[in-house]
Each structure stands twice: as structure tokens, then as C-alpha cells.
């Protein structure tokens, strides 16, 4: 059921993105944020479903597979507000539009997945609806902040360093890095290093403990990206 659902999400987003590129070819100010919205929706919706899997090995395998799939199908989209920060100096309006689209997509993905889960197609779906804050931080707030900051730095630096690689190799390298980071820190913070994805995965946590979660899952990754910008 989960695999079928993931395939449906990717196929639907692919069709919508293809239509957007074709119809808005000469209107970059509309096309770019809409593609970010679609891409971030795909990442958030798929990760929400993936998070329901309890078997660690299967989850890691799917993490790698989905990361490769996202890399192939969402080329040109950062799907991460931290990735849009590099546009801030040269094109602040474009950066703001991209970030707004990404957070909107995160909320839409969570709402869409909650609607799908309410259909009760699989047992984990009903359990997910009843769950409040899953408390992804299984360590102190200070350690969680440092982990998300470090992972963001490693991820963003890697993105910059492999930019000139052949795309077919780059996709697998980035997917492998994401899988390794999830394996290393997934049991401590969830290894999210994406503010929009964090909001989509843990909306109840942000509602209950906004300042703690915004510090760890929004401020830390953004600081990590800011650090990498100074290294270029």
C-alpha cells in the first residue's frame, strides 16, 4: 500500500510539473515557485509516508531509493528553504517566493497525507492520525541543535562540491549521503536538516513547543547553510 501510494504521489507531481514547465515557459517568476511547491510537496508527502515504516532496514533502503527518485524527478528544485537562501542577496523576491512556496507545500502535504490516512488503507495510517507530537528529539535540545547544524553544513557543502559532477553520479552520491546522515542521527533528531520537511513531519511538535523545535529544525539548518555560503 505504501509503495503504491508513493508511486502515485511521484507520478501526479511529475505530470503537474511537466504541465507547469510547458505552460509557464516564459514566466519564470511564476514557474520557479510553483515548481518548488510541487517538488517540496512530493518530498514531504513521500517522507510522511516513509516515516510510518517501523522496520529500520526497509526504511533506510527506501530513504536511499526515494532520494534517488527525487533527484531524478525534481532536478532544478531545492525543496528546502535553506537551499533558497543562496538567492537572498541577488534575488530576494525570488528567494522569498521560493521559501513561501516550500512552507505552503509542507502544510499541504501534511493535510493531504492526513486525508489519505483517514481512509484507513493500512493499519499504520490510522495510528498516525491518532498520534500527537512524536517527539523526534531523543536527546537534549543543545545536542539536537548541534546535530541538525552539523548535518546541514555537511549536506549543503556536499551539494556545492558535487555541482559540476555528471548528474547520474551526483544523484546517487547525494542519496547515499542522505541515507548515511539518517542512519547516523535519525534516532536522535530524525536527521531532517530541512525546515519545511520538519514542519510537515512534526506539526504538532511545533504547536506544543514552538521555540524549541523552531530553534533545532529551522534556525540550526539555516545557520548551517549560512556557514556554507561563506565557504564558497
UniProtKB/TrEMBL annotation:
Protein name: AQP11 protein
Cellular component terms (Gene Ontology): cytoplasm; membrane
Alphabetized UniProt keyword annotations: Membrane, Transmembrane, Transmembrane helix
Compartments it resides in: Membrane
Transmembrane segments: 172-193
GO MF annotation: an example: channel activity
Keyword match Zinc-finger: no
Membrane topology: Multi-pass membrane protein
Annotated coiled-coil segments of the chain: none
Primary localization class, coarse: membrane
Pfam family, one: MIP
Entry-linked InterPro entries: AQP11/12_channel, Aquaporin-like, Aquaporin_11, MIP
The keyword Transmembrane helix belongs to this UniProt entry's keyword annotation: yes
Amino acid at each position: 500500500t505504501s509503495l503504491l501510494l508513493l508511486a502515485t504521489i511521484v507520478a501526479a507531481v511529475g505530470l503537474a510539473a511537466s504541465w507547469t514547465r510547458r505552460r509557464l515557459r516564459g514566466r519564470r517568476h511564476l514557474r520557479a515557485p510553483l515548481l518548488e511547491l510541487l517538488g517540496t510537496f512530493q518530498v514531504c508527502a513521500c517522507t510522511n509516508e516513509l516515516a510510518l515504516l517501523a522496520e529500520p532496514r526497509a526504511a533506510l533502503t527506501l530513504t536511499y531509493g526515494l532520494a534517488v527518485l527525487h533527484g531524478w524527478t525534481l532536478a532544478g528544485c531545492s525543496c528546502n528553504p535553506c537551499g533558497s537562501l543562496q538567492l537572498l542577496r541577488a534575488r530576494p523576491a525570488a528567494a522569498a517566493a521560493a521559501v513561501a512556496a516550500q512552507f505552503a507545500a509542507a502544510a499541504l502535504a501534511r493535510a493531504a497525507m492526513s486525508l489519505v490516512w483517514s481512509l484507513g488503507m493500512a493499519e499504520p495510517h490510522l495510528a498516525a492520525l491518532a498520534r500527537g507530537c512524536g517527539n523526534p528529539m531523543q536527546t537534549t535540545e543543545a545536542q539536537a541543535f548541534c546535530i541538525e547544524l552539523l548535518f546541514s553544513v555537511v549536506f549543503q557543502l556536499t551539494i556545492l562540491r558535487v555541482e559540476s559532477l555528471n548528474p547520474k553520479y551526483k544523484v546517487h552520491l547525494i542519496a547515499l549521503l542522505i541515507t548515511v546522515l539518517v542512519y547516523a542521527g535519525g534516532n536522535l533528531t530524525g536527521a531532517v536538516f530541512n525546515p519545511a520537511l520538519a514542519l510537515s513531519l512534526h506539526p504538532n511538535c511545533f504547536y506544543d513547543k514552538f521555540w524549541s523545535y523552531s530553534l533545532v529544525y529551522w534556525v540550526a539548518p539555516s545557520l548551517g547553510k549560512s556557514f556554507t555560503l561563506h565557504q564558497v
